[in-house]
Amino acid sequence: MLRCIECDAETDRFEPGWRTLLSFDPEQDSFDEAVSYCPECSVREFDFPSRVSPRD
Ligand SMILES: [Zn+2]
Question: How much distance in Å is there from the Cα of 36 to the middle of ligand 1?
Answer without folding.
Answer: 8
